[in-house]
Amino acid sequence: MLEAIFAPQSVALLGASPNPNRLGHQVFKNIVEHGYQGRIYPIHPTASSVLGLTAYPSVLDVPDPIDLAVIVIATDHVLAAVEQCGQKGVKGLIVITAGFKEVGGEGKERERQLLEVVRRYGMRMVGPNCLGIIDTISKLNATFAALMPADGEIAFMSQSGALCTAILDWSKTAGIGFSRFVSLGNKADVDEVTLLQAWNEDPHSKVILAYLEGITNGPGFVQVARQVTQRTPVVAIKSGATAAGTRAVSSHTGSLTGSESAYEAAFAQSGIIRASSMEELFDCALAFAYQPPMSGNRVAIVTNAGGPGIIAADAIERSGWLTMAEFTSETIQRLQRDLPSTANVFNPVDVIGDARSDRYQVALSAIMDDPGVDAVLVLLTPQARSDLPETAQVIIDLSSRHTRPVLTSFMGAYSLGPALELLNQHHIPNYPFPERAVSALAAMARHRDWQQQPEPEYAQFAVDQARVRELFAQVRQAGRVELGEIEAREVMEAYGMRLPQSRLARSPEEAVQIATDIGYPVVMKISSPDILHKSDVGGVKVGIADATSVRDTYELIEYRARKYSPNARIWGILVQEMVRKGRELLVGVTRDPQFGPLVAVGMGGIYVEVLRDVAFRLAPISRQEVSAQLRSIRTFPLLRGVRGEPPADIAGTEEVVLRVSQLVTDFPEIVEMDINPLVVHNRGEGVIVLDARIILQG
Amino acid sequence: MLEAIFAPQSVALLGASPNPNRLGHQVFKNIVEHGYQGRIYPIHPTASSVLGLTAYPSVLDVPDPIDLAVIVIATDHVLAAVEQCGQKGVKGLIVITAGFKEVGGEGKERERQLLEVVRRYGMRMVGPNCLGIIDTISKLNATFAALMPADGEIAFMSQSGALCTAILDWSKTAGIGFSRFVSLGNKADVDEVTLLQAWNEDPHSKVILAYLEGITNGPGFVQVARQVTQRTPVVAIKSGATAAGTRAVSSHTGSLTGSESAYEAAFAQSGIIRASSMEELFDCALAFAYQPPMSGNRVAIVTNAGGPGIIAADAIERSGWLTMAEFTSETIQRLQRDLPSTANVFNPVDVIGDARSDRYQVALSAIMDDPGVDAVLVLLTPQARSDLPETAQVIIDLSSRHTRPVLTSFMGAYSLGPALELLNQHHIPNYPFPERAVSALAAMARHRDWQQQPEPEYAQFAVDQARVRELFAQVRQAGRVELGEIEAREVMEAYGMRLPQSRLARSPEEAVQIATDIGYPVVMKISSPDILHKSDVGGVKVGIADATSVRDTYELIEYRARKYSPNARIWGILVQEMVRKGRELLVGVTRDPQFGPLVAVGMGGIYVEVLRDVAFRLAPISRQEVSAQLRSIRTFPLLRGVRGEPPADIAGTEEVVLRVSQLVTDFPEIVEMDINPLVVHNRGEGVIVLDARIILQG
Fold first, then answer.
1. Contacts with B306 from chain A: Cβ below 8 Å
2. Cis ω before B63 (30° cut-off from 0)
3. Residue pairs between chains A and B whose CB atoms are closer than 8 Å
4. B29, B260, B314: best to mutate for the A interface, most A CBs within 10 A
5. Which residues from B are below 8 Å from A169, CB to CB?
6. Which of A242, A222, A235 is nearest to A155 (CA)?
């Protein structure tokens, strides 16, 4: 997939200028000079050759087939040139030229037309308005960047071209290599989803990095990412996450950005590791690219200094994903035997400041033989007796004989040069401070945890879709978008949720009959499509205990409704089962413009309102996901039961969320819905939807 | 202060060996070779000279006075040598030799003896078991480190000597300089408090950094730090914060570590900025050392690339301490006039990828003239047309003409060398990624916020100390450490807290009389020093509404108490005012071994138990601190009133916390106390201590 772009047999550069000051010249030079083995055709209106290669006035004049066309010509000429590429049978396009959607107005229209031509000829296009792409396997550098990165196993995509240049510049000094390097630009055709798909089974990439500002096709992204992360770790930075950031994004490329909660849910549900900074993105990348995967979360530390050992142990405990390994007694005996008596033989192992490489050797050998160690972090502060390159070599040798990840934090810089070079050459990732090494290890542990999750199971409950369709049609026919209480009730029932028994009475006598059927005490509520806040007009009464009170209440509610809302249509009075108290939850759905239905769950009332203790997942939600969702709210212990309370009906709660997920997936026209409260009784005693609200697309 | 250690007129090195393989040789070389201008005396049992300087067999043989003695001799000889130093009139000691407290057992005793000699002669001592100290003002390097740092305005202290060497090594490459650099070692005499005091008015240090594992004198630390931070920012990293870290600390130096909550409170109350990693420690240090203080929290960004601008805007919003500056219309007009039309003239200002230094110049000039900008962050990604050193020069020139902090994030590395060198030379801190620059700015904003806090006011309520002293004596006389309910009540009353009216009845008739006096309904409780869990034996009844019920209840409670606890002493039955419902808080005190009384406040019940929503402060607590403490709990909105509830009596709540603070400060023998619940009524309606528990030191 995307072969024509990343590994074309031949490349034409439209805008290959002989003038070294032109952008097109720089791109052409990059294609020619970095070892690309295919045929290269400069296209220029007048030049007969560029950098010694025969130039042609247009792609149509090139005698041979062309796989990829890279376009660096003036905006006004792009459309015609791309049309010619289509005619020529070009398969891939990289449009570096800017002046499209990002400038708004006619640029937007120009981009639409461009995409239309691309689609008509079945071509694939990166850009427009991008830096280009680099592929170190085919040695193709089709960018105007000043640098070619080293070979490596990191695939990188970025929605910001400028960030690409900064990263290339930085990677050159850090000695970090890439397999593929893509500036996405306006992503009119090829976007993050296309690239994830293309890189899914890429043998050349051990980790995929993404800098994202906005995702266009949310559900597609989640679906593809979920597959890719089964095999390859994906680490992403999503910017524009705050209000200020979003304003900055919109003044930048006008990307549509989904809500932060939706992104959080999307990353959680697709196994993408979210980096909180550019630095963390690359710290994780190095660990994934250089080291074997982790097979557990137990970390051993070897250090020649106590302080850094404590810092690392703290960071491990704080990470939430790692624990400190506990050594077997054999390991401890070996360490006691082989290390000086002043050494600490427990984790973190302290080989003491005067340690030379031999002491690291014995400590690391013992630890790497311990079956209770899943990863090793080697810390070193340069001391008078330290033999730095030798110690690096010891680590390299031992790590090559074991399959566990080994990371280092040689702290300092001035005297570390040769040692750091050795470590990097042999793909031992080194971090200047121990906390950064730990954060990379935590990412590895998270990735492993994700890969060990069982296949997601999606419940498919037997429901009455037809009834819901009918109800929605009725609501629309009545010119409404919000469902009335009885309608919302029916929808819930059609999707198998339990509600309080309830029937509409049209007279006091009928109300008494219903109450007798349901059993006392009952709740009575005014039923009117025109009265939204029933309590405000005295339209709700609870705990009505006998027939006389039912009659009295009926007349009182009816009187008040007519008095306070003289024009309201009154359908009658609902007589409802009075539900026992239980723990109260809220289940809410909003529709995110990029990601679709986003389901929120939280303990009701102030927990949601004041403490914002809510967890989100995108629908459809799997059984595993709803379980994780519920357990990720801080107040989950209240459901499990605190202070000797029995546990709540968690299984029943999860089922309601899954049924809601099924409902909003079946009916994309639901733009908002709330179950508030969902009353949750004790385990095995069920859950009841007390009130529901559904709003359809206008 | 500590002049003899940091700026001595003369130094003797005990253990100055002519043998270059000895540690003492290295230290002596460091003293001789880095420009120290005082007199230097090598002390060696046999050598007649070391490195060309006349050697003496002991300090007593030196003909001139000695200010400072640096000791690098075998552990066994230290005590005698220090005794001689005392006789000689030496004022300061740096004991590099190890083998003291850190080895336990006799080492501990040896350190005690050492300290005794030091104190007897009125000397001051750094160490033992340390790397030594460096002072770049007096050019004294009295360490065995291989490197001398550059001059600078950062004062650094570390409890880990190895970390010192790592930092020296790293600073050499990063081009960072220090004023003072101290390895504290075992801190038998000079500790973090001594150094903070010594550096309080140090004209050579613009920021103080500390790596701390444990603080010995908590209250002293808070008191001194609070003064120092009024003038000089102090940034600290406290390791050993987690359980794993603490285990690592204790196997390291055996430092006593206080509880994490106590450290959090200590840092908050003394204005110390806590760095979460070594990297952040130095990121903050650079900003404080190189740039003028911030006078507000509004940050303007200039960038040549959208992506990094968004990343920085996100980080600013997330920081909690900064906001994005909003430009005046003049600024926007100037930017519109002077920048190309494709530029973004709102914050973050995007001068576009092809910007050269002139465009940065016009953008920065306009922004720096804007009165709504308190700090400027300049971002740059190296692009084809970028003129990096020229842009650096523009920033340097403009920043020298303004008093606002200017930080940069030139992203990349390879092509940035000369530009970064220029920036560093001219003290513009550069960060490889924008998030790190923002975190440094946030530290500056925090420091400013702290400095603007008014002088703390400590309430001093009129209380009855004598009564409490008497009560505690009674309790001890009775062989107890836990106060009975009535005793605890009396303590609370003696400190001016309101409790439900309550009297002890010894008969049913007396109970009726008391209930009539108090007013119905009442609460009745068994009163016995031997029954701790009153409810469990049916010993508490609420809502008793009339005289007959009071009589019945009296006999029932008495009967049950005798039945379930036949041996309990029964004092009678308490008849209490039944307190109206209100919001419930918990006010608790524990005594931290390092910091003393630690006062916790949280909303009662599950908020504390499940959500751990508690805020801590160290007593004595000022009026401002209690206000911040209460507002820092997540559930504070419940006190302010949610869903139309009236606000609670926050002033009354604060007063109770202050009275508790006064109580536990007056009586250090209180090791634990709880008010649970404190019932808080609506604003102006007061707060009532419903139940209190006090435990004295055993």
1. 160, 162, 248-249, 252-253
2. no
3. 274
4. B314
5. 381-382, 411-416
6. A235
**Burial class of residue B487 (count of CB atoms within 10 Å of its CB; 0-12, 13-18, 19+):** buried
Instruction: Give the position of tokens 């993408």.
Output: A272
Query: Which tokens sit at B300?
Result: 């303007």
Of B278, B384, B638, the CB nearest to A433: B278
CATH H-level, domain B293-452: superfamily: Succinyl-CoA synthetase domains (3.40.50.261)
Give the separation between CA A689 and CA A493, rounded to whole angstroms: 10
Cα R_g (chain B), whole angstroms? 32
B1-131 and B145-290 in the same fold: yes
**Sequence spans of domains, chain A:** 1-130, 145-290, 294-452, 501-578, 583-696
Give the integer Cα–Cα distance in Å for A412 and B388: 27
State the sign of the Cα–Cα–Cα–Cα dihedral A174, A180, A185, A191: negative
What CATH topology corresponds to A294-452?
Rossmann fold (3.40.50)
**Rg of chain A in Å (alpha carbons):** 32
Q: Which residues of A touch B304 (CB under 8 A)?
A: 162
Number of CB atoms found within 10 A of residue B122's CB: 9
DSSP one-letter code for B186: T
Q: Which fold has domain A1-130?
A: Rossmann fold (3.40.50)
Looking at residues B461-482, what average pLDDT do you find?
Answer: 95
How many Cβ atoms sit within 10 Å of the Cβ of residue B433? 22
Identity of the amino acid at B179:
S
A385: left (phi over 0), alpha (psi -120 to 50) or beta: alpha
Q: In CATH, which of 3.65.10.10, 3.40.50.1820, 1.20.1560.10, 3.40.50.261 is domain B145-290?
A: 3.40.50.261
What number does CATH give the domain A501-578? 3.30.1490.20
Q: pTM for this structure? A: 0.88
Could you report the per-residue pLDDT of B50-104, keeping only the tens digit for each?
999 999 999 999 999 999 999 999 999 999 999 999 999 999 999 999 999 988 8
Which overall architecture, per CATH, does domain B583-696 show?
2-Layer Sandwich (3.30)
pLDDT tens, position by position, B109-139? 999 999 999 999 999 999 899 999 999 999 9
Question: What is the rounded distance in angstroms from the CA atom of residue B153 to the CA atom of residue B285?
Answer: 9
Q: What CATH number labels B1-131?
A: 3.40.50.720
CA distance A432 to chain B (A): 8
Phi then psi for residue B506, to 5 deg, are -110, 0
- Spatial separation of the C-alpha atoms in residues B611 and A520, rounded to whole Å: 38
* Other CB atoms within 10 Å distance of the CB of residue B392: 28
**Which residue in the block uniquely carries the two structure tokens 């409490």?**
B468
SS3 assignment for A465-482: HHHHHHHHHHHHHCCCCE
* Cβ within 8 Å, pair B244-A324: yes
Convert the pLDDT of each residue in A314-361 to its tens digit: 999 999 999 999 999 999 999 999 999 889 999 999 999 889 999 999
B144: which chain A residues are within 8 Å (Cβ-Cβ)? 384
Contact A41, A12 (CB under 8 A): yes
Q: Which residues of B touch A413 (CB under 8 A)?
A: 169-170, 172-174
CB A112 within 8 A of CB A79: no
Cα-based torsion angle of the residue sequence A364, A366, A370, A373 in order, rounded to the nearest 10 degrees: -20
Minimal CA–CA distance to A612: which of B105, B611, B423? Answer: B611
A55 phi and psi angles, rounded to 5 deg? -100, 155
Phi and psi dihedrals of B672, rounded to 5? Answer: -155, 140
**Contact across the interface for A252 and B307, Cβ inside 8 Å:** yes
Q: Which of B309, B315, B611 sits opposite A635 (nearest CB)?
A: B611
Q: What CA–CA distance (Å, rounded) separates B156 from A14?
A: 58
